[in-house]
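Summary: Need help interpreting a holo structure output

Steps to reproduce:
1. Submit the protein chain below together with the SMILES for magnesium ion.
2. Request a joint structure prediction with the ligand placed.
3. Inspect the structure token block that comes back.

Expected: a single structure record containing both the chain and the bound molecule.
Actual: see attached output.

Input attached:
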Amino acid sequence: MRKIVLLGYMGCGKSTIAQNLSKITKIPFLDLDECIEKRANLSINEIFSQHGEVYFRKLEHEMFVELLNSPENVIIGLGGGTPCYANNHELLKGENVASVYLKASIDTLYNRLVYNKSKRPLIANMNEEEMREFIAKHLFDRSFYYNQAQHKVVVDGKSVEETVQDILGILA
Ligand SMILES: Nc1ncnc2c1ncn2[C@@H]1O[C@H](COP(=O)(O)OP(=O)(O)O)[C@@H](O)[C@H]1O
Ligand SMILES: O=C(O)C1=C[C@@H](OP(=O)(O)O)[C@@H](O)[C@H](O)C1
Ligand SMILES: [Mg+2]
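--- attached output ---
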């Protein structure tokens, strides 16, 4: 069955857009991070602090494969790092997968993340200057993987509704 997979950097809106796309299409949505948290019975922060990032990436890969193999139509909001580990980017090319990269500029990401970093262990302890530099470098490193998506939607300056409409247009 068909999977609509949203990917992109932390703060680009994967979780928010997946939820809103689901409301309009009536296709159920799953947030990969939330699925991992439920499975581990720990928050993302706790998984990172108690078990480390390598363990998180293992759980993330297993959960992603599980969701892709489920028999339902579903919208999946990935974590920002999902396509960048364990060859997960290859899974974006699957026959029943429609993958959409929500592309945001460094400024958009910084402005959204600066007040929303506490639940994101990779940036939670950074000051503003460190964060801007980190986002710039990290986004550059990860872009190769994000660009493996079948579709791309630029989200800068767009409302949630506008981004949802753009995705609907692409998938029509
Ligand atoms: N136009 C927009 N589209 C998506 N998110 C937006 C927008 N404007 C503000 N936001 C906010 O940006 C944040 C995006 O975070 P989230 O959806 O968790 O992204 P991700 O899952 O990609 O990390 C949320 O706090 C959301 O309310
Ligand atoms: O970019 C990353 O490596 C991560 C992004 C997070 O998801 P969001 O992109 O939804 O914040 C979450 O999976 C974890 O903190 C690691
Ligand atoms: Mg998210």
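--- end attachment ---

Reviewer comment: The first helix runs from residue 14 to 25. The chain has eight helices and five strands.
Status: needs-info
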